[in-house]
């Protein structure tokens, strides 16, 4: 019994030392990789090379998997983004994403529930926050001529990683704060409206609905407003309701259902209804197209 306990403790210590060394090496590698990517992005975006040379280049899913964003690991958003962006990815697009990716946890480990303490410790090290950057690098590679903006609530995180998000305009604020959103809208659109807005923020009903209603006016005619993680409309912890459309509670999905109803009968129950051209939904994600001629 004593021998088994000694061997077990030895295994725990060895595992900790191994994971520490691996974590330290990985952070150095990630930092070096981020710097290398960052260094290559500026000349790439400012290049005057022929935009038509697009053969054999990776699609959205391939690029997103390279950087580890949960848009393609946990979710299947590649179908939506390739559907609407693949044909215009070489254009000069202005894109806003709500949520820089702070406090994200590696999707390979966050749902695991190991039993033994040694394994628990191993998973603790391997599932630490990896910080923002997955979507950032994905968009910069997938859309080589993008003018990229982010809204992030966590100011400390955004400041910590500012050297790794240098090719984006990062605004710090709460997506439910209409005063902040109005100020952002005024500052960020002095040189034009957004071609695409993506809400990958906090995923609560108030956050998603408030952002949609305020930021919709910053989408250019013909542009897209995409809302991710719509499964939270059925989660009570996010303000949703498992009852779905049968519920009297307004969720983001019930809001979108109302927009569809308005679209079908020409009504304007919601303030943005008369400007919506189409609503396209896939699993956990919907894309709203704004009318070209208002």
From TrEMBL:
Coiled-coil annotated residue ranges, if any: none
Keywords, alphabetical: Signal
Signal peptide: 1-23
PROSITE patterns attached to this UniProt entry: PROKAR_LIPOPROTEIN
Top-level taxon: Eukaryota
Database matches in InterPro entries: SAM-dependent_MTases_sf
Protein name: Hard-surface induced protein 5
């Amino acid at each position: 019994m004593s021998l088994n306990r000694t061997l077990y403790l030895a295994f725990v210590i060895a595992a900790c030392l191994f994971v520490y060394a691996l974590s330290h090496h990985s952070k150095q590698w990630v930092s070096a990789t981020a710097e290398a990517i960052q260094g290559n992005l500026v000349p790439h975006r400012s290049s005057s090379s022929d935009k038509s040379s697009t053969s054999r280049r990776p699609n959205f899913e391939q690029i997103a998997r390279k950087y580890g964003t949960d848009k393609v690991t946990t979710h299947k958003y590649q179908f939506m983004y390739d559907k609407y962006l693949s044909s215009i990815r070489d254009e000069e697009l202005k894109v806003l994403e709500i949520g820089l990716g702070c406090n994200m946890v590696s999707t390979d480990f966050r749902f695991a529930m190991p039993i033994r303490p040694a394994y628990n410790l191993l998973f603790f090290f391997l599932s630490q926050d990896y910080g923002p950057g997955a979507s950032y690098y994905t968009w910069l590679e997938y859309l080589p001529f993008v003018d990229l903006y982010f809204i992030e609530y966590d100011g400390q995180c955004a400041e910590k990683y500012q050297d790794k998000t240098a090719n984006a305009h990062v605004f710090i604020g709460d997506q439910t704060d209409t005063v902040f959103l109005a100020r952002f809208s005024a500052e960020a659109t002095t040189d034009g409206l957004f071609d695409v807005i993506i809400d990958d923020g906090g995923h609560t009903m108030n956050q998603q609905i408030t952002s949609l209603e305020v930021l919709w006016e910053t989408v250019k005619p013909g542009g897209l407003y995409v809302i991710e993680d719509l499964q939270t409309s059925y989660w009570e912890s996010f303000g949703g309701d498992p009852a779905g459309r049968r519920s009297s509670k307004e969720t983001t999905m019930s809001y979108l259902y109302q927009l569809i109803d308005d679209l079908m009968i020409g009504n304007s129950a919601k303030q943005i209804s008369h400007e919506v051209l189409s609503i396209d939904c896939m699993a956990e994600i919907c894309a709203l197209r704004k009318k070209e001629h208002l």
